[in-house]
Amino acid sequence: xxxxxxxxxxxxxxxxxxxxxxxxxxxxxxxxxxxxxxxxxxxxxxxxxxxxxxxxxxxxxxxxxxxxxxxxxxxxxxxxxxxxxxxxxxxxxxxxxxxxxxxxxxxxxxxxxxxxxxxxxxxxxxxxxxxxxxxxxxxxxxxxxxxxxxxxxxxxxxxxxxxxxxxxxxxxxxxxxxxxxxxxxxxxxxxxxxxxxxxxxxxxxxxxxxxxxxxxxxxxxxxxxxxxxxxxxxxxxxxxxxxxxxxxxxxxxxxxxxxxxxxxxxxxxxxxxxxxxxxxxxxxxxxxxxxxxxxxxxxxxxxxxxxxxxxxxxxxxxxxxxxxxxxxxx
Length: 330
What we know:
CATH class of the largest domain: Alpha Beta
Number of domains: 2
Largest sheet: 10 strands, mixed
CATH superfamily of the largest domain: Bordetella uptake gene, domain 1
Distance between the termini: 84 Å
Order of helices and strands: HEHEHEHEHEHEHEHEEHHEH
Radius of gyration: 25 Å
Structural class: alpha/beta
Number of strands: 10
CATH architecture of the largest domain: 3-Layer(aba) Sandwich
Shape: globular
Helix content: 40-55%
Strand content: 15-25%
């Protein structure tokens, strides 16, 4: 029979063992990342270029990781609402962002109340694609060239409207610059995403639109809208018949949008490195390369360090462009 003192010592030892086992259990039982679906936030409505790029990444990166990647569209305020959500998310690798020029380069100098820092609040993983913008019109609209479009705008000040995916988008800034260099007064009609904007142009509710080429591409090919000019330095291989703004007399209107993959700051380095390595493979996949070619996008792989430096440089360039354009949030 145990004495009271022996019983207490045995109980103390058992309690220590039980407590030690309980503390060790989570580390031993934790499955390797990713052990559950990953959320990929697209900070624009479905149908736009950010959404198109995001869904391709979700499909092929998910295959590489062996886990579902679920796209969540969170549009609003120049892509800043969805971007802010990711900045505040747990840095555990289960919330990612389709980062883009609007949220990371244009919004900071445009919005004084922005609640995230595009450099400090994110772990930047890889650039995915970059592409020019395109000016399109409803087929019933009279302009067939950029010169026609500008002539109409000059003859009808404050009447020619152009749609964009939203205030603070790269195409909003491009539209402001187009009006400045052509000495016209265009009317900006912002939407909550390129998809809804394009539908209104196709329906004839708005005569024209500045859109990123990937989301406009299928509508141009289907004849639902007519392309007047692209904003690249050279004609795009997917649409060689569409002249550039540069060659039509506006050399300062060379503009590109870009899209990439980012995570909240403090996401573990091993997860960032795994995502970056898999993105390198995804962006070289023949199906992804072909898809990018079809929509007029160009693939560009970067390491996390390179992409972080790229975002910082783009922010500096866009800050100067926004100030020069005089653009205001709407």
